[in-house]
């Protein structure tokens, strides 16, 4: 049975569910940062997904990437699955800008997260839900 890792649950806002993945907004107002988590138990790497789930995951990742481009017009999209701290498969989709506070480095580990205000979070959640049709 699928259960979202507590660290992901505590660090994000739920956006909604696509056919395979839960969509989560990372609670860091410095970056438009969304995470896809396939709702499958005991899955740690993309190769652990079935062939069909990998196909669906790729479609959902592409859809989310297009939405981030449309909503935020980033200079670059960072899409990565690391899992060194949270082993459950989750894939970060981060809209990056040449003037963001971490550029050109990775966003994690360089500066503390800055939580969204409720109004900022509500604005991003509404935009993401509308664009993803959730």
TrEMBL record:
It comes from Alteromonas halophila. It comes from the Bacteria. One of its GO terms (molecular function) is catalytic activity. InterPro entries: HIT-like, HIT-like_sf, HIT_Hint. This is Histidine triad (HIT) protein. Pfam families: HIT (PF01230). Residues 34-103 form the HIT domain.
